[in-house]
Please model this.
Amino acid sequence: MMEPLIREDVINLAEKFQFSERVFNMEDLPWVPFDDGNSYFKPLRFDLNTGTWTYLFKIKPNKVLARHRHTGGSVIGYTLAGEWRYAERDWIAKPGTFIFEPPGDIHTFITLDEEVVSLFILGGTLQYFDDDNTIIGQDDVYTVLHKYRSHCNENNLEVCEDLIY
Model:
């Protein structure tokens, strides 16, 4: 008699180590200031093991975000509302646009005439540059998590620890 391809003990072992399901109502999560009040994020996941963070990103109309580079991981984006582009590119992201950015890409985020909301999954570090190509700041999963926790603490909001997995 042949052994089954997937044994019951293997299935049970996998279930012991898998993450539990996470389900969130977006209305229960706050918009957290990301910079000087022109952009905000709504955290969805902080993966401290891989350095990846997932969030909704909201930016006011007709704003320019600092030129920046993503290091250590790619960026996946999906535009939900509004239109935006990179100053260095000739395309415009509209609702329904999917974006893949390779690590190391440098660009300047510009919103057009409407508020923009996009879903982003980022890995590694986000480095910000001045006009002389000097790094003037950076963010990663830890600084973004710190922004979230600080915002919650300053506004008497409960920190959703289930976002960290």
In short: The longest strand covers residues 39-47. Helices lie at 8-17, 141-154.
